[in-house]
Write a structure and sequence with these properties.
It comes from Dovyalis caffra. Belongs to the glycerophosphoryl diester phosphodiesterase family. Its EC number is 3.1.4.46. By secondary structure, the chain is α/β, with parallel strands linked by helices. The protein has one domain (about 20-350): Phosphatidylinositol (PI) phosphodiesterase (TIM Barrel), CATH 3.20.20. The protein contains 12 helices and 14 strands. Helix 4 runs parallel beside helix 5 and helix 5 packs across helix 6. The two termini are about 25 Å apart.
C-alpha cells in the first residue's frame, strides 16, 4: 500500500491555523490584503503568513565547502549574485546575516565574559552581509583570522573577489565547526556586499529576512545592542521603500530590543529548540521561545526543524499563543520533510536547495488550488499531494515517526 499524505486535522493536538490573520509587510508576491499595525498587534487576532512561504538561506543557499554535493558550492553565499539568482525563483524571501561592529562607545556585558554580534556593522559603523564571526584569509603565505567587527568597511571589502576589474583581493578560507580549514572556492564567486547595496541591487519584490547575528561567546550591554540595531535600522528605513522585511535573531535581547525600537516590521526569535544547550535558558527549548515571544510582543519563532519533529505538540502551543512558526535546517532540503511541515500547520521553511524546494512547494500549492487528490509519494519518489486524506491513528503515528527518525539519522 502506498504511503499517503497526512493532514494536520488528523493529528492529535495540532490545531488548525487561523485563516484571518495577515502580515502588514506583505505586498505583490503574496497578493494578499494587508492588516494594519494595530490589527497585527491585537493578541486575539494573531499573526500569520498568508501562505506557506519559502525563504532562500543566505540567498540561493549556504556554502558547505566540505560537502560532496556541488550544489552547496555553486554560488557565493550572502552575495548580490546569490540574491539576484534567488529573486528569479518563486521564493517569498531571502534570508541573510547582517553584522555590525561593537564600537568602544558601548559594551554589552563584561567583555571578559563576552557575547559579540554577528549582526555585523564594521568598525566604521557600516552594516555588512557576512555569516561568520571571523574572516580567515591568506596574507604572505600565512592564514590570518580577523574578527569582522574589528575591520573598517574598506578592509572588509578587500577580501575575496573585487568589484573593480584588475583588483585582486585576499584569498579566503573557511573553518568548519570541527576545526578543519577549506579554501573558499565556489563555481560562481562574487564580492562581499553591504546591507545598503543589497537594498539597491536586489529586486524590490523580494522580501528580506534580516538575521541580526551576535557572537555566542561575548556578553553585551543593552546600550551596545541598541546602538548596533539603530545603525541597521537607519539603513533599512532609508532604503526599504515598500519591500517586505522581517527581522530574526538567536539573541533574545536583540530580538526584544528590535521590537521595542520599531513596530513597522515583524520580529521573530530564532531557536535551536534544544538541539544545542546554552547558558541562556531562553534559547534551550520551544516552550522558552514561546515565553520570549509572548512576553516581548514578538510575532513568531524560527525553529531548527528537528526540534519541531521531536516535539510536534509544541506546534499546537505556538498556534495557541497566536505566533507564526517557520523552520530552518538541512533537513528542509528534503521535499517530504517540507511537505509534512506544511500539513502540520508550519507556515514556511528556510532552505538551501532553493530551486528544488520551490518546485516542490509550487506543486502542492497548485494541487491544493485544483482540489486534486494525490498520494504523498508519487512516481520516482517525488512529493505529490492529497488535499484531504483520511487515515487511521496508527498510519498517522507511523508517518510522523518515520519523518522524525529520518531527519535525526
Amino acid at each position: 500500500m502506498a504511503l499517503k499524505a497526512v493532514h494536520v486535522s488528523d493529528l492529535p493536538n495540532l490545531d488548525q491555523v487561523q485563516e484571518n490573520a495577515a502580515l502588514a509587510f506583505f505586498s505583490s508576491r503574496l497578493n494578499t490584503q494587508c492588516a494594519t499595525i494595530e490589527e497585527r498587534d491585537d493578541p486575539k487576532r494573531g499573526f500569520k503568513f498568508p501562505k506557506f512561504v519559502v525563504m532562500g538561506h543566505r540567498g540561493s543557499g549556504m556554502n558547505l565547502l566540505q560537502s560532496c554535493d556541488r550544489r552547496m558550492k555553486s554560488m557565493k553565499e550572502n552575495s548580490i549574485l546569490s540574491f539576484n539568482f534567488a529573486s528569479k525563483l518563486p521564493l517569498d524571501f531571502i534570508e541573510f546575516d547582517v553584522q555590525s561592529n561593537d564600537t568602544p562607545l558601548f559594551a554589552f556585558g563584561d567583555l571578559e565574559r563576552g557575547l559579540l554580534t554577528f549582526v555585523q556593522v564594521t568598525k566604521d559603523d557600516c552594516p555588512v552581509i557576512f555569516h561568520d564571526n571571523f574572516i580567515l584569509a591568506e596574507d604572505k603565505g600565512e592564514l590570518i583570522e580577523t574578527r569582522v567587527t574589528d575591520l573598517t568597511l574598506a578592509e572588509f571589502l578587500s577580501y575575496g573577489p573585487q568589484e573593480e576589474v584588475g583588483n585582486v583581493g585576499k584569498p579566503l578560507f573557511r573553518k568548519t565547526k570541527d576545526g578543519r580549514i577549506f579554501e573558499w572556492k565556489v563555481e560562481e564567486d562574487a564580492p562581499f556586499c553591504t546591507l545598503q547595496q543589497v537594498f539597491q541591487k536586489v529586486d524590490d519584490t523580494m522580501g528580506f529576512n534580516i538575521e541580526l547575528k551576535f557572537d555566542d561567546n561575548i556578553v553585551y550591554k543593552e546600550e551596545e545592542i541598541t546602538h548596533i540595531l539603530q545603525v541597521i535600522l537607519q539603513v533599512v528605513f532609508e532604503h526599504a521603500k515598500g519591500r517586505r522585511i522581517m527581522f530574526s535573531s538567536f539573541q533574545p535581547d536583540a530580538a526584544l530590543l528590535m521590537r521595542k525600537l520599531q513596530s513597522t516590521y515583524p520580529v521573530f526569535f530564532l531557536t535551536n529548540g534544544g538541539s544545542e544547550i546554552y547558558t541562556d535558558v531562553r534559547r534551550n527549548s520551544l516552550d522558552e521561545a514561546i515565553k520570549v515571544c509572548t512576553e516581548g510582543g514578538l510575532q513568531g519563532i524560527v525553529s531548527e526543524v528537528k526540534a519541531v519533529f521531536r516535539n510536534p505538540g509544541a506546534v499546537t502551543r505556538i498556534k495557541e499563543s497566536k505566533l507564526s512558526l517557520i523552520t530552518f535546517g538541512q533537513s528542509n532540503n528534503v521535499p517530504e520533510v517540507v511537505y509534512t511541515q506544511h500539513l502540520m500547520g508550519i507556515e514556511g521553511v528556510i532552505v538551501d536547495l532553493v530551486q528544488e524546494i520551490t518546485e516542490t512547494v509550487s506543486r502542492f500549492r497548485d494541487s491544493a488550488k485544483d482540489g486534486e487528490e494525490l498520494s504523498l509519494f508519487g512516481e520516482e519518489g517525488k512529493v505529490q499531494v492529497k488535499t484531504k486524506p483520511r487515515f487511521s491513528s496508527e498510519e498517522l503515528s507511523f508517518l510522523l515517526k518515520l519523518i522524525s527518525e529520518f531527519i535525526q539519522s
